[in-house]
Amino acid sequence: MIAAALIAAGVIIVCQMVFIRYVLNQNTIWQTDFVTYSLVAATFIGSPYVLLTRGHVNVDVLPHYLGKRARYWLALAAALMSLAFCLLMTVLTFNFWYEAWENGWVSDTMWRARLWIPYACMPVGLGILSLQYVAELINLVTGRVPPFGLRPVGARCVRPPSAQWF
What are the residues whose beta carbons fall under 8 Å from the beta carbon of 104, sequence distance 6 or more? Predict the structure, then answer.
């Protein structure tokens, strides 16, 4: 919801910026920075939800042709590498955010936005994404979810309760 609100705010601000620049023929000061920062924040903060719903683009040719055991090990390796990457990036972006906080960094634009505010979305989003990868690993290891969300060949597709018609 936060990511969607940030995108909606960005769209509204772009419309406001167009009106000010081309209808009122005035300068815009903060709008471009705000839109850029809000879209980047929406990307980082919304990424755990995308992982949860499997809304990302998959290239699943290899898992389709692998057997059940090989598919499991590939899914486990992919999830572990992704978790390691996200944890590393969480630490690095936290250090980047902290440096901006400590040194009082501001943007080079006329708005002079305090950069620790938009930079905070990086460690927060990546930290939540790391937690989502932990949940994905738990689901994979316990067998709650099949590897890559692919059912074995010939398995009956059962509609989850949330998708049933009421």
Answer: 114
